[in-house]
Inverse folding.
């Protein structure tokens, strides 16, 4: 397969040097099947070992290698250089996050939001083990399947101008996971989650830009999930307003 | 362990120029504010109608003057962008279930915009061309 030379323009931030961030250009050989992550690994292995970035599985599962490629958030392991080469490829750290070093961003804000939505099955009481598993029909599983595909790659946060302007916003992926668990027939945490999320920095901060669903590599559709949560929160609010306490559920 | 400073994130002023969809979003949001202005304009029109034929005719003449007509046309364009973009968004979110399945967003959007056009034509016919 023929090789050609492509210029990678990579954002560098070296906090220990005290220098301001800058772009560094590397000219590297690529083939038709070279992905952007391969290019970065080539630079790391053969040109500049000081370049720092995250990656792991190289197959779009782990969600570690998200970066801005030519200004758009992408998984670099699934982005072919030939598809984004416009006289070169520019790689930046994910938009919206503080940068720790070069292309490595600080995910701490996301992890806080992630825990806030209780992304696990919440139960008031567990049945005894002797009664067996909690069974589900294929239809019941289908209800949350789409949101369960999230790989926490944070591309949706990098695409969300609401999160970029307000880091307190719980954000697309965490909210999609809130819906995923709330739609699970084994879960009993919907009321508690809605109480936590029906707030100014929760679901109501979303102005439905919709870009989160455009960039999602797993078609999770976080924008749609947030609108579904808004409907559930509105129903919960009206029930609390109109019904006696004993009839609210 | 030595703590190294992080490079803090700051959203740039022109973020909405980054892609076409951000630009459309901003137009939709500005369109929301301008829809309210447009509503006020229509309320003033109604009050002039109530004030009598002379006041109404004089208000219409003022509305038709180029310094008012051009900004009003721009206002109307924003109202249209706002209304249409919300129709498109509704199609992407709360899909009506049909035979246990959600129809594709394109179908819902097409139906919404089609319904919008039919109702608009009916209103225009009733106001300006009805029997």
């Amino acid at each position: 397969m023929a090789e050609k030379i492509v210029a990678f323009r990579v954002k560098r931030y070296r906090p220990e040097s005290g220098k301001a961030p800058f772009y560094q250009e590397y000219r590297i050989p690529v083939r038709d099947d070279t992905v952007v992550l391969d290019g970065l690994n080539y630079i790391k292995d053969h040109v500049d070992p000081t370049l720092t970035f995250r990656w792991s599985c190289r197959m779009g599962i782990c969600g570690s290698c998200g970066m801005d490629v030519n200004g758009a958030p992408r998984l670099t392991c699934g982005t072919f250089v030939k598809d984004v080469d416009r006289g070169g490829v520019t790689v930046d750290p994910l938009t919206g996050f503080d940068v720790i070093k070069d292309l490595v961003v600080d995910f701490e804000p996301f992890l806080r939001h992630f825990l806030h939505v209780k992304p696990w099955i919440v139960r008031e009481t567990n049945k005894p083990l002797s009664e067996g598993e909690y069974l589900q029909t294929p239809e019941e599983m289908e209800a949350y399947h789409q949101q369960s595909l999230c790989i926490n790659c944070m591309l949706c946060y990098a695409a969300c101008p609401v999160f970029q302007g307000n880091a307190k916003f719980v954000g697309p992926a965490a909210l999609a996971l809130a819906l995923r668990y709330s739609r699970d027939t084994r879960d009993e945490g919907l009321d508690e989650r809605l109480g936590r999320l029906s707030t100014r920095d929760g679901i109501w901060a979303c102005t439905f830009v919709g870009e989160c669903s455009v960039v999602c590599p797993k078609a999770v559709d976080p924008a749609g999930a947030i609108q579904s949560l808004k409907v559930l929160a509105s129903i919960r609010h009206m029930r609390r307003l109109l019904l006696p306490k004993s009839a609210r559920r | 362990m030595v703590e190294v400073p992080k490079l803090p994130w700051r959203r740039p002023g022109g973020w909405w120029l980054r892609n076409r969809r951000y630009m459309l979003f901003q137009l939709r949001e500005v369109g929301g504010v301008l829809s309210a202005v447009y509503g006020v304009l229509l309320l003033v029109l109604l009050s002039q109608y109530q004030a009598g034929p002379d006041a109404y005719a004089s208000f219409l003449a003022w509305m038709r003057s180029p310094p008012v007509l051009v900004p009003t046309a721009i206002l109307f364009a924003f109202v249209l962008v706002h209304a249409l973009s919300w129709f498109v968004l509704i199609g992407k979110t709360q899909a009506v279930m049909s035979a246990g399945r959600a129809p594709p967003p394109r179908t819902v959007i097409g139906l919404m915009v089609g319904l919008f056009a039919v109702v608009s034509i009916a209103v225009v016919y009733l106001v300006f061309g009805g029997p």
In short: Residues 19-125 of chain B form a domain with the 3 helical TM bundles of succinate and fumarate reductases fold (CATH 1.20.1300.10). The interface with chain A takes residues 4-9, 11, 15-16, 18-19, 21-22, 25, 29, 89, 92-94 of chain B (CB under 8 Å). The mean pLDDT of chain B is 87. The first helix of chain B runs from residue 20 to 51.
